[in-house]
Structures are given as structure tokens and as C-alpha cells.
Amino acid sequence: MTLSEETATENILSFSYRAVTMDRIIFLVCLCVAVEGDIGKHVFIENKETWSSAQAYCRQYHTDLSFFNSQSEIEKLPRAADGNLVPGWIGLYRDPNNKTAWKWSGGGHITFQNWADRQPDNSGGTENNAVITWNGLWTDVSGSDFYSFYCVDKDPNLPKYTSF
Fold this sequence. Notes:
This protein is of the alpha+beta class. It has helices spanning 3-36, 51-61, 71-74; strands at 40-49, 64-65, 88-94, 102-104, 129-132, 138-141, 147-154. It has 2 domains: 1-36; 40-154, Mannose-Binding Protein A, Chain A. It is built from 3 helices and 7 strands; from the N terminus they run H-E-H-E-H-E-E-E-E-E. Strands 1, 2, 3, 4, 5, 6 and 7 form a 7-stranded mixed β-sheet that branches. It is globular. The model is unreliable at 19-37 and 158-164 (pLDDT under 50). InterPro entries: C-type_lectin-like (IPR001304), C-type_lectin-like/link_sf (IPR016186), CTDL_fold (IPR016187).
């Protein structure tokens, strides 16, 4: 191999290495944007159901019950004509293995919390699910109660679960 062939080979190898490295950097940047970005489109379902029935409906016709990583996600929920939210189920439930921890229906512990004052209180010892109230705050209630609910149609390009 001549000196010019060796130099050309080194340049090609160097370019290939830079291209692979750049692909990895772009992938990591996209992954971070996906985790921090919008979850998807929230849909309000007016029918009143138990938490389990609402979850089953959302999983059949959408992605899951709605979940939130930030206040800005809550602000994207569909509103009633008066500008307030209609109280409804969200995908939040008490971890059966740790009664002080809450999880999202789609997986993972909550990293953002928006509980109303003195909530969750587990009044009566059966409040293992959560609804979002008219002002966007959460309160724990019994899963056997009947509420309208919010589903999320998650962007299929995002990772399956965005909670860590």
C-alpha cells in the first residue's frame, strides 16, 4: 500500500468513526427530547366508569389512562366550556406493595406530583386511585366510584414508558 492509499484509508476510517459517534449523539439528544417532551394527546371520555373499567377502555381504544410528567401536561387536558376541567380518572394508583407510593397505570412511580391540600388521605382505607379535579389538582378516591376519565393517545415514536 502506498502512502497516499494509507492516508485515504485513515481518512475513511476516521470519517466512519465520526459518523458512528454523531449517530450516537443524535440518538441521545432525541431520546432526551422525547422523555422531556409532550406525552401525547389527552382525550376526555364522558362515560362514568370505575377506575378499572376506565383503564380497560383506555387501553383498548387509546394508549392508557392519562399520566403527567409536568404541570404543562395537565394544562393540555381538554376543558369544559367554563374553562375548568371535568373531574375524572387519571392513571394514578396506590402501589399495593408500598401503601405510601403511587404509580402510573402505564408503569413507573410518579416523578411529578399535583395533589390537592391534605391529599392523598386514604379516607376509609380504600382510596387507592386518583381523579383530577376541576382545577387540575389530584385527590385519592375509591376505585369503585364512578367518574368520567381521561385517556392518552401517546406518540408511537416515544419510548413505551417515560417515567424513571
